[in-house]
């Protein structure tokens, strides 16, 4: 039986229309970083009008048509917000470029997406200009904000000034009614292996995700809020907060390129946001800044931390030293990114609440979850049985963008046969739906149908007073498939032997998880960003470059 | 360009699965009204298991198949919640019957919907039993809770006990994946004229509406909340709050049939809900009860009032005398019902905030609004220009249910040519998107392409010290189309004449709105529920039964 409800699509243009009318008085404030100069403030009404002008400019002047890609290489600012609204609303696809990527990856991504236009902040022209000769699809470069344009001299693309381009154009646009399942925005994951992979968000997924961000169980954004999105708009759409804010009438404080602790502290004290969102490292820096030079940050009711696991000590320090409540959240590019949010349940003690806050959080209704068991099937939600997290939902990717002329593709290691996303994260789910992640799937040791957490073993080993660093990797084993190899860096002058370290572990983990293979190494190999580089250890082991000792209990 | 997101339908079964797993520990508590007896508490996990049992019973035992209608004639209780989840999730259509309707309307509605099963509370058997001989489609009556079953003796339908029917059946159900645009629930409007009209909510509309109810700009329901839905579950699905609560993990306190002020006050003090929802009359009674016999109602962070305009004095009294913040909301059966919610904007003074709270509220992103101007076209949002409110959105009706074998129908007076719902309400919208309703469209006076608010004129007239009551109706006018006729009831012994009353009005409304036709009457005719019955006045005028005096200014 058909319902009698109206069939109205969930689109970004609806968010634009709503925000710029019902919430026309809400504001987007961009920090200029110029001492003594007030930040630039625009109302949602003005942002909406300028978004219409931008759409006219892109369509009428630059010939953007259909679902062509318009890229942004921009900081968080009002002009980026205008692009966020205008490009999807006109039916084109917003492609946010991650300005922190290596140049060759950036060029690969632009070419893969076949971007026709790039809107770039003036301060980022030096980053873009050298790439342009490798970007044959890019016909137009639109420069927003001050910057040195000399590097663009002689480039094949036409160069425009953002303000000149939109000036004088109509401040209204008859936004087309697109199919809610059409692509609205494109974002590439920057995997450490293989080519970057594009996730094409739909109007529907952005709309539903925005509603979820504004729900009480997520960030509860409302018209009385002022959001500081420190997380970049090129990083999973700043976690969806700009679209969500425009939907809820939440004003925004845009930090532009001033992401260092001192200006962040200053803008919080001056403009008084009520909620902020950032990755842990940025907040670690902000904490040190606030500890050193106290500021009034009492306007913040919450700070959302995601993108990487937040150290519980950081959460506690913010709360205890600065009265800031941290909301821990988990997600990834493929999940739009809202996957879980860690609000403690009602009626628990303060200490229990801290336990819940340290988890990745609880799933909202639109994110269905299951834990693939190492031996096949699925694990129970008992808070103990670990499995690879798989998720399903209307804002979860079901494939990757194949490029301008290609079909989307679904690699088996990323998607299950029945279409769920394999997150590559291993963890447990408690009976009340809280997710705790322990490992990346590639870092667990698959031993006889069970999984052993390398991270868990490492953390225990590094708790031994003689151990400076420890890295545990899976190595092939005839009987069990894989077994753990423990590589250990001892502190200077420390003398602990393998049996002692193994006995130390035996008190802390199940017997079948204890490594039999041990090697002392001078230092754990690291990647360029300082993470353990386990590929190197596995290779060293395979090539016989490690001095491995077999250690088992006499009683075994 | 197609997005790469998963295509996952928004369905009630997803709400059911989510609530009964992630929030399995949340609870539905039903008030029993038995002194000294604890209310009956069930976890969401138990409710989910019982919903599965109910679905098995309906399908396997009673043969409910496809999109057949299963009706409920029930109070707010846990069993009704089970029906709310099980019936749509199995692909059937939940039809909530309004137990306050006259018997003939109730029978008409059951027959129009072709209900196959009716689940009825034992206490309501005396209401249902006499109707059964007129209900040929009803094959099964399922009785839940204690009651006298004698009236059902000899009825043609098979009679079942709810608990016996579901007992022992499997506690899991392989819910089918239905199309999100299929009907999930059916609710009839009880219009004062014509046959009742059915609105068939879709899975999609219920899902999106639930997300909106849980947003910060609506009621912000979360897992830490305990909701008291006083508004009946047969009244626009208790404003969508049961499904929204199950989605958010919000526990519920169900009042069953104990809707009188004293038990409500007692259950609030005892079970300590954090938020309640009810129509103004119920809360008027609760206020009197609390004033007379103070109770601890401090657990309530908010009370949502809708269904009829809430007198500002009632809001203030709750806040000032009992510390309860009232949230005013507007909607109708055709709008699921969430149309507007009156949260004052940030940064206004306390007195300004009261002004905003007294409006119908602000539109959420999914409800698009426009004001049809009396002369055609649409009114600006200036807070002054009045028009008939038309709305559009994914949880707004676009037609009415035509009955089991009929196509949906779209009467012109209810839907615009381009598919918007004509609400029949007249009002203004402020530049910041706040709706103020002043009249029903049928009560405004359409004078020379402008609208005159009869309610506005009446309120001003009743502000005159000599006036006891006043009713203003539209009467035909050769020059202007319609003009206002003011009928006035003077207080005993009062002597004010028409010129004085007209001069009093002239200080308060625009000159062109002043009535020229006046009549003194002994009392304003009333309907059975005490509302002004303007049909009678219009008929008396047409038939020359009123003693009408023409009054104009000497200067005109």
From TrEMBL, chains A, B:
Ligase is among the record's keywords: yes
UniProt xrefs under InterPro entries: AMP-bd_C, AMP-bd_C_sf, AMP-binding_CS, AMP-dep_synth/lig_dom, ANL_N_sf, ATP-dep_AMP-bd_enzyme
- Asked whether the keyword Nucleotide-binding is assigned, the reply is no
Positions of the AMP-binding enzyme C-terminal domain: 457-531
**AMP-dependent synthetase/ligase domain ranges (all copies):** 39-401
| Protein origin, superkingdom | Bacteria
The cross-references to SUPFAM superfamilies, in alphabetical order and at most eight, read: Acetyl-CoA synthetase-like
UniProt-recorded Gene Ontology molecular function terms: ligase activity
Give UniProt keywords alphabetically. Answer: Ligase
Q: Which Gene3D superfamilies match?
A: 3.30.300.30, N-terminal domain of ligase-like
Q: What is this protein called?
A: Long-chain fatty acid--CoA ligase
Native organism is Streptomyces pactum
């Amino acid at each position: 039986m058909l319902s009698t409800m109206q069939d109205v699509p969930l689109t970004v243009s609806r968010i634009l229309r709503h925000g710029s009318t019902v919430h026309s008085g809400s504001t987007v404030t961009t920090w200029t970083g110029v001492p003594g100069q007030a930040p630039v403030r625009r109302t949602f009404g003005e942002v909406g009008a300028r978004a219409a002008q931008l759409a006219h400019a892109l369509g009428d002047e630059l010939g953007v048509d259909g679902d062509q890609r318009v890229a942004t290489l921009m900081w968080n600012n009002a002009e980026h917000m205008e692009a966020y609204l205008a490009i999807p609303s006109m039916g084109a696809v917003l492609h946010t470029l991650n300005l922190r990527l290596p140049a060759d990856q950036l060029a690969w991504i632009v070419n893969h997406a076949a971007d026709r236009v790039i809107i770039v902040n003036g301060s980022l022209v030096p980053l873009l200009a050298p790439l342009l000769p490798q970007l044959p699809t890019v016909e137009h470069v639109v420069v927003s904000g001050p910057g040195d344009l000399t590097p663009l001299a002689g480039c094949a693309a036409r160069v425009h000034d953002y303000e000149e381009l939109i000036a004088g154009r109509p401040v209204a646009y008859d936004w087309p009614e697109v199919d809610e399942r059409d692509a609205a925005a494109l974002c590439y994951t920057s995997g450490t292996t293989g080519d970057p992979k594009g996730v094409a968000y739909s109007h529907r997924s952005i709309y539903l995700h925005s509603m979820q961000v504004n729900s009480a169980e997520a960030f509860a954004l409302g018209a009385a809020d002022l959001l500081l999105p420190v997380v970049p708009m090129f990083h999973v759409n700043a976690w969806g907060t700009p679209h969500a804010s425009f939907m809820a009438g939440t004003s925004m404080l845009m930090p532009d390129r001033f992401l260092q602790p001192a200006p962040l502290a200053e803008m919080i004290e001056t403009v008084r946001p009520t909620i902020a969102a950032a990755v842990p490292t940025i907040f670690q820096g902000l904490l040190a800044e606030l500890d050193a030079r106290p500021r009034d940050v009492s306007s913040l009711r919450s700070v959302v931390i995601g993108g990487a696991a937040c150290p519980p000590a950081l959460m506690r320090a913010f709360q205890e030293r600065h009265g800031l409540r941290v909301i821990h959240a988990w997600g990834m590019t493929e999940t739009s990114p809202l996957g879980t949010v860690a609000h403690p349940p009602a009626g628990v003690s303060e200490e229990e609440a801290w336990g819940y806050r340290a988890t990745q959080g609880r799933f909202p209704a639109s994110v269905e979850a299951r834990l693939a068991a190492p031996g096949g099937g699925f694990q129970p939600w008992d808070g103990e049985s670990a499995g690879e997290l798989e998720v399903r939902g209307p804002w979860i990717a079901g494939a990757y963008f194949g490029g301008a002329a290609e079909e989307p593709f679904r690699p088996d290691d990323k998607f299950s046969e029945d279409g769920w996303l394999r997150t590559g994260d291993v963890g447990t789910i408690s009976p009340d739906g809280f997710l705790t992640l322990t490992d990346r799937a590639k870092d667990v040791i698959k031993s006889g149908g069970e999984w052993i957490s390398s991270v868990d073993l490492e953390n225990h080993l590094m708790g031994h007073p003689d151990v400076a660093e420890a890295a545990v990797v899976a190595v092939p084993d005839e009987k069990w498939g894989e077994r753990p190899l423990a590589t250990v860096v001892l502190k200077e002058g420390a003398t602990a032997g393998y049996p002692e370290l193994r006995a130390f572990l035996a008190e802390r983990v199940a017997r079948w998880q204890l490594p039999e293979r041990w090697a002392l190494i001078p230092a754990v190999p690291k990647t360029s960003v300082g993470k353990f580089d386990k590929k190197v250890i596995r290779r060293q082991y395979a090539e016989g470059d490690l001095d491995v000792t077999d250690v088992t209990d006499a009683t075994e």
